[in-house]
Amino acid sequence: MSESKLAGQFLDAAIGLLERVRDEESAHIAEAGTAIAEAVASGNRLFAFGAGHSSLPAQDVVYRAGGLALVNFLAVPGTVGIDVMPATLGSALERVDGLAGAVLDSSPATDGDVLVIISLSGRNALPVEMAMNARALGLKVIGVTSVAYATGTKSRHVSGTFLKDHCDIVLDSKIAVGDAELSLDGIDAPFAPASTVVTSAIMQAVMAAAAGELAARGMEPPLLRSGNVDGGHEWNGRVLKEYGDRIFFRH
C-alpha cells in the first residue's frame, strides 16, 4: 500500500469522526456554548484543563486569535507537555491522588466559573478528581472525553468512576479505545491517532457556539484578533484591559 493511500485513509477517518461529532454531539456542543456564554455574561471566569496530549486542545483555546480572550489554562505542573524529563513522568502524575485538589485550591477558580476538562480516556485519577473537586467548589464542569473508554477500560480512580460521571455536560469525541485509526500488515502496532484533531475541533465548535450565544444576547463577544494583521495588537490590548480581572495568563 502506498504512503499516500495511508495518508488519505487517515484523513478520511478523521473526517468521518468529525461528521459523527457534528451529527451526534450538536446538542451537547450548543449546551456547552450556552454555559460558557452565561459565565461570560455574568462576570464569571473560564478555565480549560488537559494533561499530556489532551492538554493540546485546551491550550489551543487560550490566548488564541479568533478565540475568546477569557479562557485560562489551568496548569498542573509536570503534566502539560513533553518538555518534562523524563516524558513518562507526566503520565505517572496523572495517576497521583490529591494532585487535582491541590491545584484547584491554589487557583483563582471559584463558584460559578466554568471548567472544561479534556481527557481522552477519562480514567486516570487527575481528570476524575479535577471534575469532582471542581463541582464541589461550585464550578460548572464540561468534560470532553471518549465515552467508549468507560466500557472498554477500567477506571484508575479509587471510586471506579470516569470523568464523564462527574460532569454537568459531556462531549463525546467518539475516539475508539487505543486512539489509532489505521493498521497494516507488517506493522505490529495500530497507528495514526485522531484524538487531537477531533477534540480541538470540538473545542473550537464550543467557542463558536458561545460567541454566537453572546451575540444573540446583544453582547459583544470578547474575541481576540490575530497579532499578524494590521490593528490586531491594538484590538487585543483593549480586550485584555477591559476583561483583565478575569484573565490570568498575563499575570
Distance between the termini: 52 Å
Overall pLDDT, averaged? 95
Taken from the alpha-carbon principal axes, the silhouette is globular
Contiguous runs where pLDDT drops below 50 for at least 5 residues: none
Helix-strand string: HHEHEHHEHEHEEEHH
Pfam families: SIS_2
Domain SIS: 36-221
Protein name: UPF0309 protein K7B10_22475
Family: Belongs to the UPF0309 family.
Question: Brief overview, please?
Answer:
Belongs to the UPF0309 family. The protein has helices at 3-24, 26-41, 55-59, 88-93, 99-105, 125-136, 149-152, 195-216, 232-242, and strands at 46-50, 71-73, 114-118, 140-145, 169-172, 182-184, 187-191.
Topology:
Elements: H1 3-24, H2 26-41, E1 46-50, H3 55-59, E2 71-73, H4 88-93, H5 99-105, E3 114-118, H6 125-136, E4 140-145, H7 149-152, E5 169-172, E6 182-184, E7 187-191, H8 195-216, H9 232-242
Parallel strand pairs: 1-2, 1-3, 3-4, 4-5
Antiparallel strand pairs: 6-7
Helix pairs in contact: 1-8, 2-8, 5-6
Protein name: UPF0309 protein K7B10_22475
Family: Belongs to the UPF0309 family.
Domain SIS: 36-221
